[in-house]
């Protein structure tokens, strides 16, 4: 996003390992998955049943979800036929005939298109974990005025990629001695490190709301005159993302099953000093840009689709590829299109589902944490040449 920070919905699991149409964040290396293996198309329920779990089995490839996925796939195609696939599973040449055909497929023909024109493959075990994210709506203003005192920063001019004296590479800044150093932390930025140095693209009423919008990676500012300003991920300070939900559970402040977004926000508001300190333990800080036109934008730099876009790890799932999920949470089951990435969305079968904006989207994404099975749809002929990743 960019990539939607993407960043994650604010369920406990999201805050434990947050995404987001949402920009890339430092993450631990993951163990690569083996080459994909074919499964029947569409898969029978037993192929998408997690061991020991009772999974919902909605009608496979129903018309509504197939039409939604077709629209998302078409939106992705202009980027898909130009972009190098990080997973190495596909080439632009593999996608061109599918994209050309998708432009002519009717909505009634969408189920057959996905069923017959792709190879349905499982990456590794196919055992998947899904969370959710959404587009928050918070109070904001284009200018600073009473009640709107928290800045929304654009990208700092001194934020760059450089090599530090210890050999570390990544986002940082060049200090007064000409040395590459880590960029300012969340606490340093909140304490004024960027005042007068970085343009404020907007101001918001509630710093807690802005914190959680940063985790999502994009959102809508509800302006005093009734208008709406959309903002989206532009860059990140390169510092470590720390999941505050995990911290609250580890410290026995909130129970393991009770650290969802609503409980976390309630605790922060009830304990303002401790809550502010807790949020500052998340060193990561997101810089924004105003989004004009359809949005928010995902990792392919195209608008993401509510209930149609999923964030994945592009090292394992080609951006633009459809994915079929069969999850314990039935609302997360069905066809999705990989249009986004996220800082904590790492691994072959890790998914972050996008639900749009509004109260329903917030509630659904905020509580989304589900195990199940995942199947990736790839152009025919790609599996035969696939090799296990090193």
From TrEMBL:
The keyword Cell wall biogenesis/degradation applies. The keyword Cell wall biogenesis/degradation applies. PROSITE patterns: PROKAR_LIPOPROTEIN. GO terms for molecular function: hydrolase activity, hydrolyzing O-glycosyl compounds; peptidoglycan lytic transglycosylase activity. Residues 23-51 are annotated as: Disordered. It catalyses: Exolytic cleavage of the (1->4)-beta-glycosidic linkage between N-acetylmuramic acid (MurNAc) and N-acetylglucosamine (GlcNAc) residues in peptidoglycan, from either the reducing or the non-reducing ends of the peptidoglycan chains, with concomitant formation of a 1,6-anhydrobond in the MurNAc residue. GO terms for cellular component: outer membrane. Residues 137-289 form the Lytic transglycosylase MltA domain. It is an enzyme of class 4 (lyase). Its EC number is 4.2.2.n1. Coiled coil: none annotated. This is peptidoglycan lytic exotransglycosylase. It comes from Sphingomonas edaphi.
